[in-house]
Design brief:
Length: 109
């Protein structure tokens, strides 16, 4: 597979995203990362997403820090989440639906 040869189909399902990320991590050589590395990278991206949100909300930030784009950071978090799900064999759509059925029965106060 040549670098950059992946294409995500129009109107993808969560399963399509998960399959795409499986191929993406192989293409980019990230498929050898340990679970610890995956979680650290995921948390790093969560931190970048939080920083981008702070900048978007005009909250105090380090003026010298690099520019973060909230939408890009959300996408990075999503990619790492899918990679972690793939590693553990989690069908994210099924997990979401199953958990939401449980949540519907909870009493939210």
């Amino acid at each position: 597979m040549s670098q950059g040869s992946l294409n995500l189909k129009q109107n993808p399902t969560l399963r399509d995203f998960q399959n795409y990320v499986t191929d993406l991590v192989k293409e980019r050589g990230f498929d050898k990362e340990t679970v610890s590395e995956m979680f650290m990278l995921f948390l790093e991206e969560c931190g970048e997403m939080a920083k981008a949100a702070r900048k978007t909300q005009k909250m105090k930030t380090d003026k010298n820090s690099e520019q973060f784009h909230f939408d890009h950071e959300v996408a990075d978090v999503f990619i790492y989440l899918l990679d972690i799900c793939n590693h553990f064999g989690v069908d994210l759509e099924k997990a979401f639906r199953d958990k939401e059925e449980i949540n519907k029965k909870r009493i939210w106060e």
